[in-house]
Amino acid sequence: MEEYEIKKVSVVIPVYNEEESLPHLYRALNEVLQTLPYRYEVIFIDDGSKDGSLRILEELHQKDPAVVVVSFRRNFGQTAALSAGFHYATGDVIITMDADLQNDPTDIPKLVEKARYYDIVSGWRKNRKDPFLTRKLPSRVANYLISFVTGVRLHDYGCTLKAYRKEVIKNIKLYGEMHRFIPAIASWVGATVCEVETTHHPRRFGSSKYGLSRTIRVLLDLITVKFLQSFSTRPIHAFGPPGLFMTGGGFLIALYLTYRKLLFNESIGGRPLLLLSVLLMILGVELVVMGLLGEMLTRVYHESQDKPIFVVKKILRID
Ligand code: UDP
Ligand code: MG
Q1: Is the distance from the beta carbon of residue 70 to the nearest atom of ligand 1 less than 6 Å?
Q2: Range 169-186 average pLDDT
Q3: By alpha-carbon position, which residue is closest to atom 23 of ligand 1?
Q4: Cα 27 to Cα 188: distance, rounded to the nearest angstrom
């Protein structure tokens, strides 16, 4: 197995109204990071907090040069905060975690060591300390569904405590609330993924920023991710087959009705079958056209930024 050299570790932490947790978090982090045989930085992203979080972060930065603070103009969400963290991180390995003390900094060394051999190390809150009905149950279903659909089997997609290698994460663009899908997206372009068990604590201060409505958003994100994985460079193959099938079906029905009308002089004007035939043909043509539009979008996307449709790991060549 290839071993990866680590010189510096970046810890990325999104913060949204977590003033009470921050001092505890910083103390615990400091204790762990100082024992690591690598240089390190801690990047806090203040996601437009309305409490005293930013002031506390600024104080930490004044005291400790290893603390980097990125402050958003308004609340952009956890995914945007993580994405900013990846952007500004300078470490070879990037650890992400929550600010609310639910993740345990003492797990960091374990993740970093694993990251010498894997591109992504995903935490698994095996003994999760969240309410069962509103959090653990939907999460269990979501993890099963995401694993099944993406083919990347993980127990805990939602755990923020993860480690990423710089090369892998810097090439992944995040939108919406897609951060939980990074292991799947990365694995599709050839990244290696492993899972380690991590400790989890109940929230001590403040309250969770999410409710049950997140389940629906995760489901929609899953559809997007899956669609992009399978068809982003060939959308006509997604829309084309059902489109042709429907147009063809509608056409055959229309032929049959015409035949009845011409040969037996039946009245077909009021038949539900006629409605179905017309509907199928219109929808079918529409789907094919949608696929063609998709093909044009794909070309605009790739050609306007010279973006290749492949990912290279290494090139061996004598110039
Ligand atoms: N968070 C953020 N922006 C937001 C919502 C949350 O930066 O809009 C941060 C939050 O401060 C915490 C982490 O993301 O550090 C996870 O949030 P939370 O603990 O509310 O989620 P849960 O653990 O309940 O899933
Ligand atoms: Mg939390």
Answers
A1: no
A2: 92
A3: 208
A4: 37
